[in-house]
Amino acid sequence: MASITGFQPPKALYGAKRWLLAGIILAVVVSLFSAQFNRYYLGVIIDCGISIILAVSLNLINGHTGQFSLGHAGFMAVGGYSAAKFSLVFSPMVPESLRPVLFVVALALGGCMAALIGLGVGIPSLRLKGDYLAIVTLGFGEIIRVVVQNMESVGAASGLKGIPKYTTLGWTFALAFITIYVIITLVNSTYGRGFIAVSDDEVAASSMGINPVRYKVTAFVIGAFFAGVAGGLYAHHKQFLSPTGFDFLKSIDIVVMVILGGMGRTMGVIIAAILLTLLPEVLRQFADYRMIIYALLIIALMMVRPQGLFTLAKRKGATA
User: Which member of 100, 157, 311, 312 has the greatest number of CB atoms within 10 A?
Assistant: First the structure.
């Protein structure tokens, strides 16, 4: 089991803030020229950024803390609908110059609402393990979908329309870099050793004075917050939300990104998120056979690399 005390973060983390700043600046600069890009390709790139946020945030729960959540799409839905409804209500009251501030507030609200729901679900359910936890989180995700589907205030089954298009390439990848930075620095901090300890052996962690439930709930809340932010970006990118977009299959898509990238491997998960977002688009030329080929490729990849495609080295305490 990983050591909890006396941990010194890798030297690479000392320059993490500079990489974060450089990534945000690059995202903003590229975004300034995004009007010259093909709209379809730009949309796919933004989808990749949103997938990175979802996959990296779920990796904290499933990969670093060793849980198995199937409800990430539910958190995404809570964040997406909350942020979208806030924007729809307040956008007409806010001058054009303050719309970016409104967007930030909407994303923060979406993230906080998702985190609050994550806390409410996490406290009673995270005393469970393995398959039992997966079933509970799966049920939670379906409850969220059904509730939204019957709420007239957010469009019910017909969906929420007319959402302002605030999401840009710059916003998406700036937030993706922030998500990566927060998760990596958290896991590689002294406090973050608790996540690894719980993942390795809950009984041994408890014997050392660590409260596994506390760490699991913390991971759940943080992961839910970033899923909510991703949902807000998604809502202001697609300009339309439908309950069917947050069903069980959406959660499975995110889980596959984490498993394919390598559980607990942040860089591997990032690559897998990009790959699995681009792959269905590349396969569009095969029309009706697209999803069959997609599924067969996933099966083949898992048979060849069941430990994940991008697990290049054995984890030694910290992961990146």
Answer: 311
